[in-house]
UniProtKB/TrEMBL annotation, chain A:
This is creatine kinase. One of its GO terms (cellular component) is extracellular space. Keywords: ATP-binding, Kinase, Nucleotide-binding, Transferase. Residues 11-98 form the Phosphagen kinase N-terminal domain.
TrEMBL record, chain B:
This is Creatine kinase S-type, mitochondrial. One of its GO terms (biological process) is phosphocreatine biosynthetic process. Reversibly catalyzes the transfer of phosphate between ATP and various phosphogens (e.g. creatine phosphate). Creatine kinase isoenzymes play a central role in energy transduction in tissues with large, fluctuating energy demands, such as skeletal muscle, heart, brain and spermatozoa. It is a peripheral membrane protein.
Length: 381, 417
């Protein structure tokens, strides 16, 4: 919640053990890492804007587990959360991001020329390609904690920056609360419209407050570059198109992001970023690149194969249903994307997806012909 | 090194930036420091109340009708002794523009003091919701003497069950939207300790939501006693479902006619109920049980939140005063289809709900009929109103069965002039 520390000082009159949450039924990263000792040390702290330990972990207390994925169970309310509560967040980051240490450095690489190939994924199998990331605007509290005034300021600044994009990136902003029925229907048909979050993971962290105030969607005229404002992060940036030309998608992604960043710098601000955590976002799972590059790919044979999970694991890829993170796959078409976010650069992650999906399609073709895939099993990346 | 340099540079730029966004000239003073990082205090000054005023143009709840920029400006930076703010009171009303069946209140209290610190908003909302009741000038009567009820046994051909509920809050502990885990556990401890002292037909057992066995859970479901984690956004947006099911539980007497919910929407919800039409007995048990519980907590130095203007203090302003909803499940096959049904209910200060509770629609011809009002009339007065009203409805039903005509009764007086 904005401005206050929501009675943090009053809780201190109770012993730490009396405040400690019951996490006995829980299975998320926060519940694994938090101990009474850590809780005791951190509970008196708050970030300068007033975000407290209980604010960080509330979503993890209220959501013991998720059917498909191991959730993080905590969120940041501002950039300083990651510093003030590092005793809790560093081990969570290490657990979630494959052993990433507090001393590790994260590299950013948004040069699309460094991507090899990626323009030739078979469109008979790869139905669409997409790259998304998030960005936070330095100096403003994040969605779990921001006030209405701050959220509106983020919207205003973002729309001003996006309105100055030109060429194939030129587009228009649709504020969620002002859109006409016709505009809304079009955005739904385009599969662009995001709705008020229903996932309890998001609701419990306070991200849906004041909906739809300050929220909106911007997209370019060709509908291949899309920005969500004030949903789960300040900005979510998405480049997408039908078919398998991931290289083109990534090109546009990098160009767009770089242009937007320049526009913000011209206005005297910047994105939250540091050399250790990379781009700072609301959920610790999206630190680093915040990048999810993925395809919708038809692999009905491969997905039924006994080694499917093993292949994905080795390729550092994950599967989701075509409706997104909280859905199951339908009819053999899967959303396949990179599993990592932090510790690898953007180019490296997209390269993994490009190479990995190419291999999956190859395997699918072999299985269609009744051939074995043992000969082309990948090594662990 | 480079990192902190960048931050220093951008702080000066941030001042210009934020000033250009209309964030106020105060911005420049507070940002001329090395740090780009604003404290909560500085942030508050940077965003005046006008920047934060919620957009309530599509809203239809009592809070949205009462809140003005002037009131918001005056109250935004106030806090109660428990550090509860106005924004936290109204969040549920901002997040829930309207409800299909009822005009919602749109705000909650975080503690007893909320009603005082934010009186400039609570008072007009209370007035709107409670028929013109003015907390500043009017006094609320409390009367739990069940012997005064007359004609309180209904014809069981029509009335299937009778029920009275209210809520009670423990003074000194914050309410469900605001409470910390330790406060919530304290409410549970205090309540369960008191209930353990009940005897005779009121003796019973506590079932903690988190600890109950599968068998206990199934039994409570079969008895229609078990309450679940709130799903209504009216409640979840008011932060009431935090830490579920920690500190929540159900107590009921062995005869299953007296039931207490702990830490659901209020500290305690007290329910007396039984099958059939003996509302007098239900109310008698209700009063007796409440008085005994009050005595038991007082023995340990606690008391209920109450004052002479607002009566019993509960989380939602709609439940102030008596917090009492007395109701029956009643079969009104013919009357419910009569076009005058709604007006008859209105005039008798009664409301209808589906048999699943406040957020449900009716099925068949069985209705939940209960009193509309909570504040400004005593418990005895409200139950008598319900009793007289239900007797009248049954009489109408019988008349329609015999082919006779019915009359709309004269409206009962309210406070509104």
């Amino acid at each position: 919640m904005p401005f206050g520390n929501t009675h943090n000082a009053l809780k201190m009159k109770y012993a730490s053990s009396e405040e400690y949450p019951d996490l006995s039924q829980h299975n998320n990263h926060m519940a694994k890492i938090l101990t009474p000792a850590i809780y005791e040390r951190l509970r008196s702290k708050q970030t300068p804007s007033g975000f407290t330990l209980d604010d960080v972990i509330q979503t993890g207390i209220d959501n013991p587990g998720h059917p498909f994925i191991m959730t993080v169970g905590c969120v940041a309310g501002d950039e300083e959360t990651y510093e003030v509560f590092k005793e809790l967040l560093d081990p969570i980051i290490e657990d979630r991001h494959g052993g990433y240490k507090p001393t590790d450095k994260h590299k950013t690489d948004l040069n699309p020329n460094n991507l090899k190939g990626g323009d030739d994924l078979d469109p008979n199998y790869v139905l669409s390609s997409r790259v998304r990331t998030g960005r936070s605007i330095r100096g403003f509290c994040l969605p779990p904690h921001c006030s209405r005034g701050e959220r509106r300021a983020v919207e205003k600044m973002s729309v001003e920056a996006l309105d100055s994009l030109s060429g194939d990136l030129k587009g228009k902003y649709y504020a969620l609360k002002n859109m006409t029925d016709a505009e809304q229907q079009q955005l739904i048909d385009d599969h662009f419209l995001f709705d008020k979050p229903v996932s309890p993971l998001l609701l419990a962290s306070g991200m849906a407050r004041d909906w739809p105030d300050g929220r909106g969607i911007w997209h370019n005229d060709t509908k291949t570059f899309l920005v969500w404002v004030n949903e789960e992060d300040h900005l979510r940036v998405i480049s997408m198109q039908k078919g398998g030309n991931m290289k083109e998608v990534f090109n546009r992604f990098c160009t767009g992001l770089t242009k937007i960043e320049t526009l913000f710098k011209d206005k005297g601000t910047s994105f939250m970023w540091n050399g250790h955590l990379g781009y700072v976002l609301t959920c610790p799972s999206n630190l680093g690149t915040g990048l999810r590059a993925g395809v919708h790919v038809k692999i009905p044979n491969m997905s039924k194969h006994a080694k499917f999970e093993e292949v994905l694991k080795r390729l550092r890829l994950q599967k989701r249903g075509t409706g997104g993170v909280d859905t199951a796959a339908v009819g053999g078409t899967f959303d396949i994307s990179n599993a990592d976010r932090l510790g690898f650069s953007e180019v490296e992650l997209v390269q993994m997806v490009v190479d990995g999906v190419k291999l999956l399609v190859e395997m699918e073709k072999k299985l269609e012909k009744g051939q074995s895939i043992d000969g082309i099993m990948p090594t662990q990346k | 090194m480079a990192f902190s340099f960048t931050r220093m540079m951008s702080s000066r730029n941030t001042a210009t930036l934020l000033a250009s966004l209309g964030a106020g000239t105060m911005a420049t003073c507070y940002l001329m420091t090395d740090s780009n990082i604003l404290s909560a205090e500085e942030r508050r000054k940077l965003y005046p109340p006008s920047a934060d005023f919620p957009d309530l143009r599509r809203h239809n709840n009592c809070m949205a009708h009462a809140l003005t920029p002037a009131i918001y400006g005056k109250l935004r930076d106030q806090v109660t002794p428990n550090n509860w703010t106005l924004d936290q009171c109204i969040q549920t009303g901002v997040d829930n523009p309207g409800h299909p069946f009822i005009k919602t209140v749109g705000m909650v209290a975080g503690d007893e003091e909320s009603y005082k610190v934010f009186a400039d908003l609570f008072d007009p909302v209370i007035k709107d919701r409670h028929n013109g009741y003015d907390p500043k000038t009017m006094k609320h009567p409390t009367d739990l003497d069940a012997s005064k009820i007359t004609n309180g046994v209904f014809d069981e051909k029509y009335v299937l069950s009778s029920r009275v509920r209210t809520g009670r809050s423990i003074r000194g502990l914050s309410l469900p939207p605001c409470c910390s885990r330790s406060e919530r556990r304290e409410v549970e401890r205090v309540t369960v300790q008191a209930l353990a002292g009940l005897k005779g037909d009121l003796a019973g057992h506590y079932y903690s939501l988190g600890d109950m066995t599968e068998k206990e859970q199934q039994q409570l479901i079969d008895d229609h006693f078990l309450f679940d984690k709130p799903v209504s956004p009216l409640l979840t947006c008011a932060f009431m479902a935090r830490d579920w099911p920690d500190g929540r539980g159900l107590w009921h007497n062995n005869e299953k006619t007296f039931l207490i919910w702990v830490n659901e929407e209020d500290h305690t919800r007290v329910i007396s109920m039984e099958k059939g039409g003996n509302m007098k007995r239900v109310f008698e048990r209700f009063c007796r049980g409440l008085q005994q519980v009050e005595k038991l907590i007082q023995e340990r130095g606690w008391e209920f939140m109450w004052n002479e203007h607002l009566g019993y203090i509960l989380t939602c302003p709609s439940n102030l005063g008596t917090g009492l909803r007395a109701g029956v499940h009643v079969r009104l096959a013919k009357l419910s289809k009569d076009p005058r049904f709604g007006k008859i209910l209105d005039n008798m200060r009664l409301q209808k709900r589906g048999t699943g509770g406040v957020d449900t629609a009716t099925t068949g011809d069985t209705f939940d009929i209960s009193n509309n009002d909570r504040l400004g009339k005593s418990e005895v007065e409200l139950v008598q109103l319900l009793v007289d009203g239900v007797n009248y409805l049954i009489d109408c039903e019988k008349r329609l069965e015999r082919g006779q005509d019915i009359k709309i009764p004269a409206p009962i007086a309210q406070f509104r002039k």
